[in-house]
Specification:
By secondary structure, the chain is α+β, with helices and mostly antiparallel strands. Helix content is about 60%, strand content about 20%. It contains four helices and four strands. A hairpin with a 4-residue loop joins strand 3 and strand 4. The protein starts with 8 loop residues before the first helix and ends in a 5-residue tail after the last helix.
Amino acid sequence: MANINLLPWREEAREQKKRDYYLALVLTSLVGFLIVYLTIMVVDGQINEQNARNQYLKDEIVLLDKQIKEIREIREKKKDIERRTDIILNLQEARNLPTHVLDELVRIVPPGVYISNLEKKGSLIWIEGRSESNNNVSNMMRKVKASQWMHDPSMKSIFSQQDEVRKMQSFSLRVAIDDQSELEETAQAQGGVR
């Protein structure tokens, strides 16, 4: 006997294709969602890793900024100390200047010249006095020009004045003084000897 299949095989084939289609659709969707999820997780992990690196760099930058600030403060303190040291050194060098000037004054004042007033204003000395002759004053001015500590003599006034005993010349002289420490530094810079 022959077997005859009276079942609707076409409908079953259609139903099987539909089930296979839906299964493939569900599997494809699941694989797609899985790929998207894994991609999101990988990207999120990279973002977190980059954020961690960024935070580390920010922390290091904060530390470096703090160190830079400390270095600036140290440099400011160093400049302040150097400025104070320079002031102290200048004061120490300047304290001997009056002694040197008075010592030099003893050498340049010739016999017959009498100083009555000596006044220092800045880097100038005003000398007032009397002289037995104009030649003595001229001689003193020549010695000032050759002096190590004084220079640029300028006569402000000279006039005759009759004293009880003799005739004297009253004079007023302006002299510039040198800060020898500057001269010594210049000589050292040019390779000179102290």
